[in-house]
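Worked Example 4.2. Consider the chain below.
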Amino acid sequence: MNTRARIVEGGVIVGSILLAFAIDAGWSARGEARDQAVIRGALYSEMQSTVDRIDGHLERRRQFAESLATFLGSSPTALADLSSDSAGSLLRRLTFLAPFTASIDPVRSADVARLDDVALRTLLGDWMGAAENVAEDQTFLVAASIELARLSGLVGGPRALSRFDFPEVPQPNVGLSRLRSEGQFVDAILVFDRREQNNLRKIRELRKRTVSVLLQLESRR
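Applying the procedure from the previous section yields the following structure tokens:
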């Protein structure tokens, strides 16, 4: 084989090797792009779910604030005069107080470090900080809500209390009147409300951070 043929053959071999590397790199890049799209999709679903849950929680807390104002602004006698439906609704809103919990684990496990979007990674870091701030109050709020449920047992039996089935309380208006006269319950619900107001500020900040993440994710779609 002459020199020219060897050069041509060598060029073909080198070209084939380079082409193989290029194809492999292309597949790797496409695979990485797919993986990042999956991560972003999972994050989008989680963030949208968080906004929906926050909005639901804020609405329940709005109803709680209205009910608390009615409860504290009424005398035991006035509460005793309420209809069973009105009293039952007021009682449920005052005593069914599940705290908001941010789902941090799905975000932690989303392999955020692989994302090539630096702005998104920064926003997610801010989001985690806001979620952890919300979580700081959870132990107290859970304990306080359990205590309120225990005290509300003054108006219903253990079965009604364990199921949070307050409409089954035979005379919810009488129960509300008794709770309004019960200083321990009034003190406990005021303590809960003060701590909850502080937590709500943190939850609203978390919502703002969540929307920022959603907007950044939408910009990459």
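Residues 28 and 71 are 63 Å apart (CA to CA). Residues 3-219 form one domain. Compare this with Example 4.1 before moving on.
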